[in-house]
Design goal:
By secondary structure, this protein is mostly helical. It has one domain. The chain is built from 4 helices and 2 strands; from the N terminus they run ααββαα. The N and C termini lie far apart (81 Å).
């Protein structure tokens, strides 16, 4: 691993003008989106990743409507009973899906499609016998 001291003489040799262009290329003054239309904070570097990389059922970003002025107070937080019920339901659904995956039973288009197609083939053979 390279120590920061290794870079110190090289950074010191960069001209102010070149360093300024380098810093400007990051656009730190622009706000970064959290989600589409959800304007976030300025001063960072946004890194996008696939949504399924770190799956989560709980959104850790608290969103509040209204002004973003620093002079405005934060809204009071309320313990929403509805949020708790939704979280419990999501946990139940997650457990049920894991059990279904373990047992190999999975409801979906493939299992429904095979029964529908087998029904059609038996129906068509039944029709051909009566012609």
């Amino acid at each position: 691993m390279v120590s920061p001291a290794h870079f110190q003489p090289r950074v010191a040799s960069v001209s102010q003008r070149r360093w300024g262009h380098f810093v400007e290329s990051f656009h730190f003054e622009e706000r970064m989106e959290f989600n589409e239309g959800d304007i976030g904070l300025a001063g960072g570097i946004q890194i996008l990743e696939p949504a399924n990389l770190n799956p989560t059922n709980v959104d850790t970003i608290r969103r509040y409507g209204g002004s973003t002025s620093p002079d405005m107070p934060w809204p009071e937080e309320h313990d929403d009973d509805e949020d708790c019920r939704i979280e419990r339901l999501e946990k139940i659904m997650s457990r049920a899906m894991k059990k279904m995956d373990k047992n190999g039973t999975r409801l979906g288009p493939s299992s429904q499609g095979s029964s529908a197609s087998s029904g059609m083939s038996s129906q068509s053979s039944h029709d051909s016998q009566h012609e």
